[in-house]
């Protein structure tokens, strides 16, 4: 049974995540108009927002400790915030600054915080094998740490996910897989890629428990995750949880969503898991003043992180090839890195995420 303290914590995480992303939108759009120029402004590159996914991050991560591992996909902010990733350094990373979590080299899809064992990746389902590895390490070290891999419903036909389920099951590993089902993989609706509408059924093929939560109700997620994390910590193996969330925004900032029916967008806007949780708080006797105070505290924290990040120095160009898995092309040492723009060399890192 969820306590009022836990309800308040989840609410704070969720409003922090929502406000954080609203503020990122403001910052992201600076310099990108009138014709959308994705490389311009203080946050260059793609930005995938998780507004509408908050209940899954908060409802799961509230059960985790710093020594538990979380891997997240390309839509990571709500999960990172709920896992306790340093908000200032995460924001500096998103702004490409030198003091960012990855020294400004990763951007918003490649946040890595070893202090709380958090990582994310733009490659879908990529986080599943490392989460299984972290769970195997915890088991071999005889600790009761667990690992959680978050992924989207569009990633659950990937081999990496299915192989991870198998390894986790056969070795009884302390890992929880959390599928965030927002019905879309970019512009592809779920029913065009699979006949299995309940993704939790994938668990049956690996003889592990599978739970589907049909609404983005933070309390329902909390309860399912409580059981799954406890089961993992107690040495009883993995669980697959699928949560119905909703995508309130486009796939990425700048997505005109021409493929998406108006009714679907309206439905996503009407189902607000944060408002639903505020109602839960009220029914537990928390006053509107208390709720406002939580929200204000969250907003202040976000503003502080954004102001701090914007004051941080840009990385030095000479550091471009430090701490990365590539060697500089021959000319880079002498031409300041301009050679990296040539096709086919180490600078060609583009791609559709
Ligand atoms: C292995 C791989 N294939 C394709 C892509 C391109 N891609 C980026 S996001 C995405 C769809 C992801 O959908 P889903 O997993 O449902 O997550 P959502 O964006 O809905 O949160 C795809 C295909 C990728 N990043 N990685
Ligand atoms: Mg999806």
From TrEMBL:
Names of required cofactors: thiamine diphosphate
Region Disordered: start-end pairs: 306-353
Keyword tags: Oxidoreductase, Thiamine pyrophosphate
Domain Dehydrogenase E1 component: 41-318
Molecular function as annotated in GO: pyruvate dehydrogenase (acetyl-transferring) activity
Oxidoreductase recorded as keyword: yes
Biased composition (Low complexity): 328-346
GO BP term, example: pyruvate decarboxylation to acetyl-CoA
Family matches, as InterPro entries: DH_E1, PDH_E1_Alpha_Subunit, THDP-binding
Keyword Cell membrane annotated: no
One Pfam family, short name: E1_dh
Protein name: Acetoin:2,6-dichlorophenolindophenol oxidoreductase subunit alpha
Organism, as annotated: Haloferax massiliensis
Gene it is expressed from: acoA_1
